User: Fold this.
Amino acid sequence: MANKPIEPPVPKEMLPRHIAIVMDGNGRWAKKRGMPRGYGHVQGARTFRRLLEYAHAIGIKYISFYAFSTENWRRPDDEVHGIMNLMRKYLKDAYNHFDLRTRFVLLGDETGFEPDLMKQFEDIQKDTDDFEVMTVGLAANYGSRREIAHAAQELAQLVKKGELEPEDITEELLAQHLYTHEMPDVDLLIRPGGEQRISNFLLWQCAYAEFYFCDTLWPDFDSKELDKAIIEFAKRTRRFGGL
Ligand code: IPE
Ligand code: IPE
Ligand code: MG
Assistant:
């Protein structure tokens, strides 16, 4: 599949390096149409694909999508099952996009999935490991607090084995034990769907992210909406605590 470059909405050097998106509003989108929530997830998955291709075309280097949180297991079984099947389909589909040279990284706890899905996640990460055009973080069974707790466990193990001194635990070292260790911090966090909260997504990585919220429900979020968020981002003054 060809993906022709598209002129980005702002000069290239003003693009966010890492965009993170909370794909929210699928259920409400379906409800508004008198359809079951699962239909909203199907449309939301299509939006994910379109946006991924668009981000690639305008030259975004890192993009993370929040697909399923550690808290989303609380939903009814049939909804969870439907979302897992969509992941199976889209992971398979990713192989049709190899010419995009996009690297896929699972952000999340893979042990929570059925074995076949876990294998699919492992395979896609292995098979795209050398790709360098864009890195896509797939946040599935993701919870930021669990991620940080997991990093703390790994570091504690190293200390226990005598391979690490507690005082050598720095911010950088902790970051190397997060699922995002191969990605830079988030520059722009986008949440469509009308809610203005972070819902346990990339808490550490968003320390200095710019936040962009909009009411558009995720299935309706298109390239124009992404452009709007990027243009808004380019207008912000980032100080990182300085002057
Ligand atoms: C986001 O849409 C997708 C997942 C959380 C899996 P929702 O399913 O949360 O949709 P709303 O927020 O109920 O509309
Ligand atoms: C956040 O959306 C998780 C994903 C989009 C995967 P939720 O719909 O689960 O968040 P809350 O419950 O509104 O905070
Ligand atoms: Mg929601």
